[in-house]
Amino acid sequence: MKTENQKAWFFVLPVLLLVAFNALIPMMTVVNYSVQETFGNNLFFWQGLDWFQQILNSERFHNALGRQFLFTALILIIEIPLGIIIALAMPKKGFWVPVCLVTMALPMLIPWNVVGAMWNIFTLPDIGLLGYFMNHTLGIDYNMTQDPFAAWVTIIIMDVWHWTSLVVLLSYAGLVSIPDAFYQAAEVDGASKWSVFRYIQLPKMKQVLTIAILLRFMDSFNIYTEPFTLTGGGPGNSTTLLSIDLVKIALGQFDLGPAAAMSLIYFAITLLVSWLFYTLMTKDDAS
Asked: Does residue 269 lie in a domain region?
């Protein structure tokens, strides 16, 4: 009888300890704050589930959550199809392949806070290149610091510019893994480009697209640095996403109990929706 060697777990143990230190311990701290009240000096007072009830009944929380879902939905609707289209248009062989891949990867190499600062300067109505061009050249009244619609358009375009590359690279990896025999068979059968995409390319990209959708959902649903640096949640509260509102409660108001409860609810929503995405996209594979 063959016995399994379990010694490989010793190589994984340092990673597990690191994850426990960086994730589980802070998580337990958040749980502790979510059921208690503190006024400093390590004095805690038991609150039970009061903070959770307060957050779930809060109109402020519902509005911020709605803005967060709207932002994420717009990002997925734009970036997933756009990434697939760009990946389909990229060359599969030759000199331009590495050029296109490096070009696609460049936006993702820029730190998040730098992206927000870049777009903030770029879109200012008087001194920004885009803001000046929109207002003085095209004659369009564009001011993201005062117009909520302009602010929303700006943060959406900024995220599309920054993260569509991830979808492109993942989709491209799925496309180049398709054997030439599939295309040759489709050519012999006289299949149209749409038929090739629907019955050959899209099924072969399903796994990488599942990863792309999950990554883009989790990242866009928890985004903070770029929109905060760009708009600060304004004008007013028009771009105050749930992540920005959470930081305002925790650090701005120093309401650690409600902030901890909100962060746990936020975490649970992220896990639930991610699980739903994954279940729906892989249900055919399971059957």
From this structure: yes
In DSSP terms, 46 is beta-bridged to 36
Write the CATH number for 269.
1.10.3720.10
How far lies 270's CA from each of 179, 207, 237, 274, 276, in Å? Answer: 36, 20, 22, 6, 10
The Cα angle at residue 73 between residues 178 and 105, in degrees rounded to 5: 45
Question: What residues make up the domain containing 193?
Answer: 58-286
DSSP-derived secondary structure letter, 190: T
Quickly tell me which residue has 């729906």 as its tokens.
280
DSSP code for 235: S
Is the C-alpha dihedral spanning 39, 44, 45, 48 positive or negative?
positive
Prediction pTM value: 0.88
At 116-148, the pLDDT tens digits run 999 999 998 888 888 888 888 888 888 888 999
**Helix segments in 124-196, DSSP class H:** 129-132, 148-176, 180-188, 193-196
| Cα-based distances in Å from 45 to 38, 48, 53, 77, 175 | 6, 9, 17, 45, 57
Q: How many other C-beta atoms lie within 10 A of the C-beta of residue 144?
A: 26
